[in-house]
Structures are given as C-alpha cells and as structure tokens.
Amino acid sequence: MNEFTGMRKITSVDRLNTTQLEQLRLSGIAYDGQDLPPEERISSHDESELESVLNSCELWDVATDGFVVFEAWLYQGDSGSIFKAGTTEMIAEIIQCGLECDDDDIELKIGMAMVQSNLLPTGDSEYERFSSALKALQ
Fold this sequence. Notes:
By secondary structure, the protein is of the alpha+beta class. Helix content is 31%, strand content 28%.
C-alpha cells in the first residue's frame, strides 16, 4: 500500500535537484499555464502579491513498502502535481482538492494514501470510494 511520507516544506530552490526543479516548473505550468523558472515559483517575498508563486509548497514522497514510487508536489492548499519518482513524468494532479488521474489503478492507490494521510478532504466526491477501498485492505 502507498503512503505519503517525508514531507518537506519548500521555501527555496537551493536544495532541489535538477529533476525536482523541472518537476516544480511543470507543476507551475499545470497550475496556471505560465512557463516560469522554478526560482519564480518559490519566493521569499510577500507571496500574496505574487500570482506566480506556488504558496504553501510541500514536496512529499509516496512510498510502497519503503520504496519511493511517486513524488507529490502539493501547493496553494488545494492543488498538486504527482510524478513518477525521479522523473518528470506527471501521472496525476490535484485540482481543488480532488485527485485526477488517467490510470484508474494508480488513482485508487494514491487516493487511498491521501485518505490515510488526511490529505483528501472528507467532502471530496471520491473520498468515500478511496476510504472504503482502504478499509477493505486493512
């Protein structure tokens, strides 16, 4: 079973590797369509004045049996981008708290992990499906 682990608050690009920098750039494009450098997405300025900044940016590992399989960027309080670990292949997005994924199997696994980690609001339309699937595994 997948689990969200190792959350890091991202307040600077200084400690991000090349792949993570590209993931951040792609997350920004997915969020607002603007292709901006990662440095412009994370800012120490007054973020309320900068529309391009991904506020409350967190980077999570999504692991199965201790092995990181996905990297999840969560930002703006209700949005995110999920990549295959160590790649720039985006496999899912979080839009207004809801998980969007073209692969039903991956969506279910990530959705259950989001429920287990309290990252999916109980009011989300898919919460019950993911929660029921998680309970069936326990």
